[in-house]
Amino acid sequence: MLQYVIWDVDPEIFHIGSFSVRWYGLLFALGFLIGMQIMTYIFKKEDKPVADTDTLLIYMVVATILGARFGHFLFYEPEVLFKNPLEVILPPYRGLASHGATIGILTGLWLYSRRKSSLETGQTFLWVTDRIVITVALGGASIRFGNLMNSEIVGRPTDVPWAFIFINNPEYAKIPRHPAQLYESLSCLVLFFFLLWFWNRYKERTPRGSMLGIFLIWVFGLRFFYEYLKENQVPFEDSLPLNVGQILSIPAVLLGVYFLIRGYRNQGNIPVSQDRAPTKTGTV
Predict the structure, then answer these.
(1) Does the annotation flag 144 for ligand binding?
(2) How high is the mean pLDDT of the chain?
(3) Beta bridge partners of 12
(4) Which residues contact 75 (CB under 8 A, 6 or more apart)?
(5) Alpha helices in 117-179 (DSSP H)
(6) Which end of the chain has less neighbouring CB within 10 Å, N or C?
(7) Does the pTM of the predicted model rise above 0.85?
(8) What secondary structure letter does DSSP report for 87?
(9) Are strands 12-16 and 164-166 parallel, antiparallel or unpaired?
(10) Is the pLDDT of residue 2 over 70?
(11) What is the C-alpha separation between 216 and 210, in angstroms, rounded?
(12) Residue 95 pLDDT > 70
C-alpha cells in the first residue's frame, strides 16, 4: 500500500490579535535578507562599493513586488487590472506572478545600472544581473517553499509514493497530488548552488550575460514542464493548448539562450580585472 504525505502544516506561525505572521511572508523576507548578505560578499570580493548594496536592495524589493503583482493581474486577471489598477498596490496582497517578477527585476536592474555603470563602479546591467540571479535563485526556492507551506499552487493528481494530500486546501484535500511547489523549490536550490560555484570560479572573468542566460533557461525551461504536473491557476487556461505559465516561459528561455550565446561570444572582450581596467561607460 502506498504511503502518501499528509500535509496539514498550519500556514500561520503565530498571531497577536489581528496581526498574523505566516510562513510565506517569513520565507519571502528571508530571501531578500540572505540575498543581501550574499551580494555584500560578492561586492567585497570584486572590490565594488559595498554601500551600493543598500540601494540595490531597495530597487530589488520594489521591482520584485510591483512586477509580481502587476504580472499576476496582467497575465491572469486582466479584467481586475483595468477596472481597478490600484489593486496592484493595495491590500489584500493576493497573487504574485514569477514571470512578472522577472520582468520587474530586469527593469529595476536596468534603472539601477544606469546610475551605477560608471567607470568607477563598473556595475553595468549584465554585471549586476549575472550576480543578482544567484540570490534570485535562492529567493525562488524560498518563495516556492512558502507556497508549499500555504498549500497553494498544487500539482495534479498522482499515485507516486511521495504525493502530498493537502489537508488545508479544501478544494484539493481528498486526492494525492504532485508537490509541484517542492519540485520548483528544489530546482531553484540546485540552481543557486551551481550559480554560486560558477561565479566563485570566474568572478570578474564571468562571461557577461552567461549567468543570466543559465538562470532563464533553467528556471523557465523546467517551469514549462512542471506546468504539466500542476493545476491551472485560472479557469480560462483549461481551454488553451498551453497554459499561461508555459506560454510566458518560451520567450524567457529564448532570451536566456540569447544571453548565454552572447556572453561566450564576447568572452574575449572581458578584461582580467574589470575594476583595474574598466570598460567604456554604459556598455554591457
Answers:
(1) yes
(2) 89
(3) 22
(4) 97, 99, 100, 244, 248
(5) 125-149
(6) N
(7) yes
(8) G
(9) unpaired
(10) no
(11) 10
(12) yes
List Cα–Cα distances, 220 to 90, 223, 255, in angstroms.
Answer: 29, 5, 10
Torsion angles phi and psi, residue 155, rounded to 5: -85, 175
Contact present, 96 and 72 (Cβ < 8 Å): yes
* Upper half-sphere CA count for residue 184 (Cβ side, 13 Å): 30
How many angstroms separate the CA atoms of 230 and 253, rounded?
20
Q: Is the pLDDT of residue 280 over 60?
A: no
Task: Give dist(CA 151, CA 247) in Å, integer.
Answer: 25
For 97-131, the pLDDT digits (tens) are: 999 999 999 999 999 998 886 656 789 999 999 99
Q: What's the CA gap between 86 and 16, in Å, rounded?
A: 28
Residue 12: what are its φ and ψ, rounded to 5°? -100, 130
Residue 195 CA to residue 62 CA, distance in Å, equals 24
CA distance 170 to 4: 17
The dihedral over CA atoms of 230, 96, 215, 274, expressed in degrees to the nearest 10, equals: 180
User: Residues 136, 35: contact at Cβ < 8 Å?
Assistant: yes
Nearest to 132 by CA among 69, 204, 53: 53
Amino acid sitting at position 61: V
